[in-house]
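Researcher: Let's do a round of design. I'm pasting the structure tokens now; please hold your answer until I've finished.
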């Protein structure tokens, strides 16, 4: 009985193979049939489109019409397709345990090369800001230079970039008045921008420039230190004659943007008319008049200030 069971197994395997082949042929036939049906439908639709003038070319010479070329299969090729054996391939699936992801190179973004740090950005901003700062000194007779900056002397403000100081060092200024004048001059010129210029005229019975300088001096640190040293040697003496100092101040080229005139005493009334005449020979220069401790020349100084477009100020100064 055991041998009979072995002989029956072979026919079973053969019948199973036969069924598989039959199913395969049936599947191929169904596939070919569906393919033919799809082709037929496509050809029908294409024929209708071409007969109905779907190209929209009009009745002219045919320009603008788009010819559609169709691939047509004949019966011989169709039969070859039906008789061909189809190979059924099963796509392979990679083992997820053995597959590896591609490597990734990490880049240090913070502080990486090619990226400017905050210092570089700051330097750019500083450069663009510096490009807009500063004011020119002016050329020629000084036209257009009066709006460049400012100065302050005894609290009196003036606009411009070139300032002439015409100050009294006569005998009546001896003592605390002269000390106050020296201090106010130092503070005023120390406060000037480095692109500004200055010149100091000292008058008594005669006049002279501080340190015998006769040209504009730049208000840089070197000249500011020089001023302090020169003022230390100034002494009070003589009378009160400012006319010569004004002639020299108006003779400067370029002309001053503003003149400070400070005195503590009475001077010749003709000085006011002389100054007005000098101021008519070119661009008008405002004269800021400061009466220091005494009002004896107040009316004359007011007149000078009014005719020049300047200002008048009285300062309660110390007495000797």
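Researcher: That's everything. Go ahead.
Model: Designed sequence:
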């Amino acid at each position: 009985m055991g041998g009979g069971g072995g002989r029956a197994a072979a026919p079973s395997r053969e019948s199973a193979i036969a069924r598989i082949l039959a199913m395969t042929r049936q599947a191929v036939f169904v596939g070919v049939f569906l393919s033919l049906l799809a082709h037929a439908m496509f050809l029908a639709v294409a024929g209708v489109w071409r007969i109905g003038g779907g190209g929209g070319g009009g009745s002219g010479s045919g320009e603008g019409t788009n010819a559609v070329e169709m691939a047509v299969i004949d019966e011989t090729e169709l039969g070859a397709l039906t008789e061909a054996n189809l190979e059924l391939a099963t796509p392979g699936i990679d083992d997820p345990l053995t597959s590896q992801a591609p490597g990734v190179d990490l880049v240090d973004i913070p502080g990486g090369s090619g990226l400017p740090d905050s210092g570089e950005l700051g330097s750019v901003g500083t450069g663009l800001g510096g490009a807009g700062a500063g004011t020119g000194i002016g050329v020629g007779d000084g036209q257009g230079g009066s709006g460049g900056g400012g100065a302050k002397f005894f609290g009196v403000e003036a606009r411009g970039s070139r300032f002439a100081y015409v100050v009294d060092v006569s005998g009546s200024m001896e003592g605390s008045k002269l000390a106050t004048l020296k201090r106010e001059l130092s503070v005023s010129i120390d406060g000037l921008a480095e692109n500004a210029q200055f010149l100091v005229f000292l008058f008594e019975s005669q006049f002279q420039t501080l340190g015998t300088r006769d040209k504009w001096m730049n208000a840089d640190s070197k000249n500011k230190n020089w001023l302090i040293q020169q003022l230390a040697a100034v002494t009070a003496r003589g009378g009160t004659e400012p006319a010569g100092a004004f002639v020299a101040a108006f003779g400067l080229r370029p002309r001053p943007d503003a003149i400070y005139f400070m005195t503590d005493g009475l001077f010749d009334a003709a000085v006011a008319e002389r100054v007005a005449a000098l101021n008519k020979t070119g661009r008008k220069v405002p004269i800021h008049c400061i009466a220091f401790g005494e009002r004896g020349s107040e009316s004359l100084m007011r007149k000078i200030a009014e005719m020049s477009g300047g200002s008048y100020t009285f300062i309660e100064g110390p007495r000797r």
